[in-house]
Amino acid sequence: MKLLRIVPDETNVPFMRLRHLTFPLSGFLSLVAIALFFVVGLNFGIDFRGGTLIEVRSKSGPADLSTMRQKLGDANFGEVQLQQFGAPTEVLIRIAQQAGGEAAQQAVVEKTKELLGANYDYRRVEVVGPRVSGELVQNGIIGVLVAMIGIFVYLWFRFEWQFSVGATIATMHDVVLTIGFYSLTQVDFDLSSVAAILTIMGYSVNDTVVIYDRIREMLRRYKRMPIEELLDMAMNTTLSRTIITSTTAFLATLGLFLFGPAVIQSFVQAMLFGIVVGVYSSAFIAAPLLIYLGVRTQTGEVSAGEAAPA
Fold it and tell me: Is the separation of the CB atoms in 109 and 77 below 8 Å?
């Protein structure tokens, strides 16, 4: 029985030669992402802005969104967002933070129940005050920074400092582009978005570590091969694994995007973007960076037998 090969054995993609295009491209996209963050900003959800989140279910058929919007709009709550998710009977209500502290937020919940009446079941009510939202922002930033430092320290002990710096730069590249994605699309940035960023970091580092491990193995085996040729060989020998794992993760996440509930869409959309960016950074950022960080072999000509992969 003939085995299926996703990538032919003779594949030889010139990843290192393409770095002259991908490095300027990544630099440009990173600057655009930073500019979007400062100019446009993030569309912070209630978790970070403070406010009220109410999940309701209609008892008598599909929810009438237009009537609900009219009733809540006439109540002068300020910004009110209604989002249908799951079944037509389920609605997610987001109400902006009210002046007057947590007591005012609780009053909004009672007023909403009074306006909508007994035709709805109130399945979930969350009230986030300004103090709590500020702590969530701080904890989210600390979480991302601690994860970045942990990745750096782990890879330093696992490999060498050049590999640690390369992986950290590639991971920061993914985080910056993901923040730019949130700024460009204005998808709600809430606690699930922080989870998405941490997941993207983990996925990207996992792919990078696999490639780095193959590079380290080949550095021990082909000591006289030019470093660019060695890095290309390492990338091409792990290409099949990268394609299979990234495609599987992407398709699973795509299913959540198409059929999942609305409450996880900010997480899912960021993950779809992050999977693509993570694969790109592992191949075109993390590996080529080793050339500039001083990773070298005893450069010289090698025989065809010695250079052939096992």
Answer: no
Dihedral of alpha carbons 124, 259, 196, 179, sign: negative
Domains and CATH numbers, the chain: 15-44+133-302 (1.20.1640.10), 51-128 (3.30.70.3400)
* CB 140 within 8 Å of CB 235: no
DSSP, collapsed to helix, strand or coil, labels residue 65 as helix
CB of 276 within 8 A of CB of 253?
A: no
DSSP reduced 3-state for 35: helix
Rounded to an integer, what distance in angstroms lies between the CA atom of residue 66 and that of residue 228? 62
pTM score: 0.75
Average pLDDT over the chain, rounded to an integer? 80
3-state helix, strand, coil in the chain (%, to 5): 65, 10, 20
Identify the CA nearest to 245 among candidates 216, 292, 194, 210: 210
Task: Give me the amino acid identity at 133.
Answer: S
Distance between CA atoms of 143 and 303, rounded to whole angstroms? 49
Q: Which stretches of the chain drop beneath a pLDDT of 50?
A: 1, 300-310
Identity of residue 234: A
160-173 pLDDT, tens digit per residue, is: 788 888 888 988 89
Residue 241 DSSP code? H
pLDDT (0 to 100) of residue 36:
92
Distance from the Cα of residue 110 to its chain's centroid: 37
Half-sphere exposure of 64 toward its Cβ, with a 13 Å CA cutoff? Answer: 11
Rounded to an integer, what distance in angstroms lies between the CA atom of residue 59 and that of residue 56?
10
Element (H, E) at 262: none
